[in-house]
Amino acid sequence: MIALDSSVFAFLAGATGRDADLVDRLFAAYLPPVVLTEMLSDPKLPKQVAELLVQIPRLELLPGYWERAGALRAKVLGQKRRARLADTLIAQSCIDHDVGLVTRDADFRQFVRAGGLRLVGGSHRVA
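User: That's the sequence. What structure does it adopt?
Assistant: Structure tokens below.
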């Protein structure tokens, strides 16, 4: 099982690359709820794409999610690293379900070291 970050949906606009190919081939993926929110927030999102997105299964929030997400973000920030709130929430969803995240966003590397996030389908060297 894998989860998808909004950054990989560039393939919908014709982008190519290893992650876009992976998403195209393995569309048996899950969306963290925050990713769905990010995608549906785009005022230019075509209606057909929005209809497709809401059909993709979502990772359920598990009890204690908010507390674990807060602790994860505090750990990353304590290491003087960038930890955007949405990225933290996405990472925690994936960590909770032990699913790899397909992303083009290098900021997620912080959550590999701090929380055990697994990144899939790209070269994400952890600094």
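The chain is about 45% helix and 5% strand.
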